[in-house]
Amino acid sequence: VEILDAKTREKLCFLDKVEPQATIAEIKNLFTKTQGRSLKDEDVLQKLPVGTTATLYFRDLGAQISWVTVFLTEYAGPLFIYLLFYFRVPFIYGHKYDFTSSRHSVVHLACICHSFHYVKRLLETLFVHRFSHGTMPLRNIFKNCTYYWGFAAWMAYYINHPLYTPPTYGAQQVKLALAIFVICQLGNFSIHMALRDLRPAGSKTRKIPYPTKNPFTWLFLLVSCPNYTYEVGSWIGFAIMTQCLPVALFSLVGFTQMTIWAKGKHRSYLKEFRDYPPLRMPIVPFLL
Amino acid sequence: MGRWTEAATAARSAGPPATPLPLSATSLGCGATMASSEEDGTNGGASEASEEKEATGRRRRLGFLATAWLTFYNIAMTAGWLVLAIAMVRFYMEKGTHRGLYKSIQKTLKFFQTFALLEIVHCLIGIVPTSVLVTGVQVSSRIFMVWLVTHSIKPVQNEESVVLFLVSWTVTEITRYSFYTFSLLDHLPYFIKWARYNFFIILYPVGVAGELLTIYAALPYVKKTGMFSIRLPNKYNVSFDYYYFLLITMASYIPLFPQLYFHMLRQRRKVLHGEVIIEKDD
After folding, report:
1. Whether pLDDT at A110 is above 60
2. Residue A121 neighbours by CB distance under 10 Å
3. Is B14's CB within 8 Å of A59's CB?
4. Whether the predicted pLDDT of B30 surpasses 80
5. Which H helix or E strand runs over B13?
6. Nearest to A30 among B2, B14, B16 (CB)
7. How far apart are CA A124 and CA A100, in angstroms?
8. How many CB pairs under 8 A join A and B?
9. Mean pLDDT over residues A14-38, rounded?
10. Where does the record place the TECR-like N-terminal domain (chain A) (predicted)?
11. Which of A15, A212, B6, B222 is in the most buried spot, having the most CB atoms within 10 Å?
């Protein structure tokens, strides 16, 4: 059976020894099965399910950029941009406010938290994370940086504004929010370390993550991606601390995106491992 | 299991998924304005080039209830926009002016244009094969024009530009919904298909012009009254300036309109000229 591309008339593949009783559905299956399975760099030719000749399909992924580069760029931006607003660099607010400092303590605290968050991310990118894929499409760096840098500028503008209004419930609210933020940052870091320890250096194996002695990792009992859970928690904490609507919106958008990722990850865990713990939800315990 | 022999390798560019703009869409409808342009197959269960064939194919997969509902929906919308068209013509014949025209038809317009929100639901539940995002953007821009501009900014209601986009929308929608209706009923007259893929050439730029001119006319009033805007300081530390929002909206037409327009031109070539070739072979 010879299969040609309908548009270009190119010979796509040649199926040998097809049963006369085979249905079109089965032929389609044979064709798409080899088309669809993308091979890993580590695969050995001999071990692949081919006969004495093998047909490899080449797909051009377009311009690529390394994950590390993207992460470093997209995280360095917010760190730097927020500080521009914090120090009230000229041309952002009125000239009489240039290089002045806010009289609200929460504004200083917020700067510390925001900066800490992104410094942590940068350090994790350099020293903690182990990436499955080396690269991603080049277009992503523009998309991602617009998102991170844009939102950072938007929230920094209001938090550091001369007309900023501190939280309604004052110091109590800020303390509670700070506690949530710190706990979630510690949690997020613990999960990153736990995931790193799952995978030896240079390897790309995948294993089911389990709780360790660190209490922050016990969230693995209930959730597949507790790193995302803690990340959303941190931003909720930051939103309560600053009582700033753009921060809340940023948290919401981030939560939506992380839920999509968590569901995908959860699904691939379920597909890959028969004995995956049934109690776990993707991102929110018991709910989502 | 068959043995595989060497074949031509297909080197395709597989970058990130397509952007949400209707570039990845199949043929767009006779969208006269940016607001009204949409993908083929929207809300009528009809799809692209081999429309009649695929329409039947699609309907076989659509349940009876879905087909019945979509048929009713498209008939109702065709009727609604026809009523609007007739009301507009009658008003102009009686009064001889466009002043007061918007006011006389506004209830009907708001009803039927808002009802079109259902088209997003149709995509969500899958009875129409279009992307939710594309339909959402298109319906939202219509809702924006009707509710956030002409309804809320009363001084612009008597502008000529309002008539411009109203006429363009009306003709577009009547063509579009009747196209879907006939497709669903499996009896699509060629002239409807012709209308759908040709009217937009004029109506689309005309409609866009009408919309832009209307927004432009609204700007002074918005700036003066500060409507829909939040200023600092406030409890939630946020601000919004409707005036700048409108400016940004107007600017967004610049990248979006050409893309949609040229996409529809391409679809037109594919659908109408593709058909001609088939007839030749016969």
Report:
1. yes
2. 23
3. yes
4. no
5. strand B12-13
6. B2
7. 33
8. 98
9. 69
10. 1-34
11. B222
In angstroms, the CA A29 to CA A25 distance is 6
Strands A135-137 and A64-66: antiparallel
Half-sphere exposure of B30 (CA within 13 A, CB side): 26
**Count of beta carbons in the 10 Å neighbourhood of residue B208:** 25
Q: Which residue of A has its CA nearest to B232?
A: A163
* Structure-token pair, residue B59: 């309907």
Cβ of A12 within 8 Å of Cβ of B8? The answer is: yes
pLDDT score, position A23: 77
C-alpha–C-alpha distance, residues B193 and B273, integer Å: 12
Cα dihedral A182, A184, A187, A188 sign: negative
Residue of A nearest to B234 (CA): A165
In the predicted structure, residue B4 carries a pLDDT above the cut 80:
no
pLDDT level of residue A9 (50, 70, 90 thresholds): confident
Encoded tokens for A221 = 């009992």
Higher per-residue confidence, A25 vs A169: A169
For the whole model, what pTM was predicted? 0.74
DSSP class of B15: -
In this structure, are residues B240 and B229 in contact, taking their beta carbons and an 8 Å threshold?
yes
For the stretch A225-235, pLDDT in tens is: 999 999 999 99
**Amino acid present at B197:** Y
Contact B22, B263 (CB under 8 A): yes
* pLDDT for B277: 41
CA gap B185, B162 in Å, rounded: 34
Q: Tell me, what amino acid is at B218?
A: A
Tell me, what's the pLDDT at A190? 95
Q: B148: closest CA among B59, B249, B66, B234?
A: B249
For residue A83, give every residue at least 6 positions away whose Cβ sits within 8 Å of its Cβ, in sequence order, or none: A111, A115
Domain boundaries, given as residue ranges, for chain A: 64-166, 169-287
Split at pLDDT 50, 70, 90, the class of A132 is confident
Look at A224 and B2; give whichever has higher pLDDT. A224
Residue listed under structure tokens 């969230």: A219
The answer to whether A4 and A11 are in contact (CB under 8 A) is yes
CB of A222 within 8 A of CB of A278?
no
State the pLDDT at residue A32. Answer: 63
Question: Touching check for B5 and chain A: CB below 8 Å?
Answer: yes
Using pLDDT thresholds of 50, 70 and 90, give the confidence band for residue B31. Answer: very low
Q: What are phi and psi of A12, to 5 degrees?
A: -90, -45
Q: Which of the residues B159, B211, B243, B261 is marked catalytic? A: B211
Alpha-carbon distance of B145 to B116, in angstroms, equals: 14
Residue of A nearest to B239 (CA): A158
Phi and psi angles of residue A18, each rounded to the nearest 5 degrees, phi first: -85, 135
Report the amino acid identity of residue A70: V
Burial class, B198, CB count within 10 angstroms (exposed 0-12 / middle 13-18 / buried 19+): middle
Q: Are B232 and B239 in contact (CB under 8 A)?
A: yes
Helix, strand, coil % in chain B, rounded to nearest 5: 70, 0, 30
